[in-house]
# Entry
Amino acid sequence: MKKVPIARILVTLFFVGLLMTPAIVRKYGSSHASSSGITLDRQTALARHGFYLEEVSRSAGIDFVHQAPTLDAKLAPIMPEVASMGASISIVDFDRDGWPDIYVTNSAEGSKNRLYRNMRDGTFKDVAEEMGIADVNQPGTGVSMGAVWGDYDNDGYEDLFLIKWGRPELFHNNGGKGFTRVSEQAGLPPWMNANTAVWFDYDGDGLLDLFVAGYYSEDVDLWHLKSTRMMPDSFEYANNGGRKYLFHNLGGGKFEEVSARLGINSRRWALASSAADLRGTGHPDLFVANDYGVSELYRYDGKRFNEVGEQAGVGFAPKSGMSVSFGDIFNQGKYSVYVSNISENGALIQGNNLWVPKEGTEGDATQYENLARDLGVELGGWSFGAQFGDLNNDGNLDLYVTDGYVSLDRSRSYWYDFTKIAGGNSSIIGDARDWPAMDGRSLSGYQQKHVWLNDGAGKFVDVAQAVGATDTYDGRAIAFADLWNNGALDVIEANQRGPLLVYKNTVSPENQWIEFELQGTNSNRSAIGAQVSLSWSGKRQIQSVSGGSGFSAQNDRRLHFGLGKNPHIEKAVIHWPSGKVQTLDSLNPDKLYFIEEPQ
Amino acid sequence: MIQATTKPEAQPAERESKPAFRGWTPSSSRLNPYVPPAFITLILVIGHLSFGILESYQKTMLAIVTSIVCELVLGRLLLNRWPNLASAYISGISVGILLRAPGYWPYVVCALLSITSKYVLRVNGRHIFNPSNFGICAMLFLASDAVATLSIQWGNNLAAMAVIWVLGSLIIWRARRFHICVTYVASFLLLSVVRAWLTGDPWLSEVSPITGPEYQLFIFFMITDPKTTVKSKLGQCIVAFSVAVVEMFFRLDQSIYAPLYALFCVGPVALLIEMARNSRQSALGSSNALTTNAVHS
# Structure
């Protein structure tokens, strides 16, 4: 009998310990690893983290402020939410002068997109108007949501595909001197409501193909709604979104839509997509991040695309996918996939996904496990665009994530009403009329960005505030480019209803780098899909040229490798989309190499 | 409230006049003892096969196994007997379905909190919180950066929802607790009109939550829990109505987890009131008996 009271005391103590566990996990857990919340001065940041970001858009001559669309008046009560996308960035050297230029989209009817030509002196000049790709948001034609560049006719100049809620557009680049609209000749459909597209040569015929994924259904004209029943029919299992398109490049400026024939039939609400040879088979894989549902992974087997998301482990738990980026974060010659989602304390903790290939799986059997929490890159607010890149040139890929959904009244939140409606039956959630009005309230607004520095030992530490990434705009797209041609990856950030930011990167000079600009001959001229495997100082990292990644973004086609201190470069092996393999020896650090595919 | 019971050997079931889901015994119920666990398993299976509601099998299994092991250990340790595991299974599966967290540890801690609360938070030998409601609320209070609940999950599909409502109602009817569900649902719908009028939001947006999966579990497995509800039928209806009323105030304060918090607040208070009334009546009964004896003597 005396045993019982002692046991009860022990159980009570155990109970108290359980109540304290969350605080202990919060204190010692890895998911919130952050260097500090304090902004460091440049010298301290350089000494501590190896780089420093300085926002220079104004001095660089960039004064772009994104304008959101104003849709049908029936959506007015929830307009800030439904009109919450459209700010995008794509990096392109449209005139082939060797300096990366910046194209940004605008999203109000009548607003103009901008093409910032790099003037090579640290300033940029908007030339979109004179090039003919500014006035692309005219009433009745929809508005821009993003842009991806690829040389579809292999003439040496990057062409522009404009992603729209409205009439999609293809512009042919006339030798860097102007653009010609060729949408009808190319065979594009008259209307879609898309937020993502990616150029890639899925069949390896040397001609770039184009994947485009719809968000709202293509039969919806958001400016003239026939019905307010156009919202997702579920918060996490919606299947009433826009269709997918796979435009096979037939040559001669013509495309054929082949998605259904090749096995792509989804109607999930896609927000991001990217392609790379994730299995090392020579065929590209297509990863699609869907809002209101699971991600999809399409593997091309040489004839068809097979959706293997669930089987590969990435398509099981439905979240709110908003970005796709690939990175060889462990320098093991394998890509991990980062997909951004939503996390809001006290409301919804989806957590971002870092899909890492499982040990012992490879090729068609490659499976993924989510290590975002273990590596400290899980909680990123209402995350949107994310990109991998070596920001401090230490030889490890870092991760930049922008976030923030709707920043209005700081003191009033829409989260309660959002969850109230989102949990309901499809007949309620699917009708915009049933959604409570936002009334100027914020929804995950004013969020700090995340610059997760990869320590090379399996941990990422958030240094955003310390290195100068201090803005709290509603971030959408992130793109990386060496805008100053000085061996440092600069960060360009597009914000919804906010300014275009350019963070100039200053990197500690002892960390060295190497860059490759590839040009295909048998492969597509843009070399999209080409993969460089760089071996140096006992390390090996792979990167590939992308036709679009992150959220509504495209990085510079140049591949940038950080090398750390006193590197010894052994070789670079290039796997061209044509199948050709090229090995480069005698490479030196701190140089940009222009490589043409051998004939 | 953490209080050692004065009668640690008393099984919660022993205090039930009309046992149903938790701690109930086959002889005292019209319901087969394995029906409630089977029903919640059915909800899980339908939800998962229709929509893949489980974030991972591992997390749900972890919650179930943790609950069962904890129940076995604590039952053996504190009550010196092997407990009926139906209750622990339901608590574990409720945690596995309702809790949403990217990590594994919240499922373990929540399941442990749920079961342990039954043995620690007791008044007069009776636990006063619904176990899974307590565990989930505790996690929402203490670990809001790591967990959320099912509130915006599941497929929002009418057919699957109808199956669960019909089956659930039949089972609850057999368990003689249907009046609790009806009272709560009617109160919720009535008060949704009041909320819509007060907030100016569309009425359907106020109705929306009850059409989601969180409420199916809440209505069939939490507010009807015989261990943590009062005994009289009228009292049960009053408590169900009170939960809806308190929930309305939480909702007007824009609390996302309003129903869980409402039950967390109302459930124990109702039980304590019932206990106080019972002890007063007992005392009155004893006093009357003494008086009667005195008169007769």
Summary: The radius of gyration of chain B is 20 Å. Chain B touches chain A through 61 residues (CB under 8 Å). Residues 162 and 168 of chain B are 10 Å apart (CA to CA).
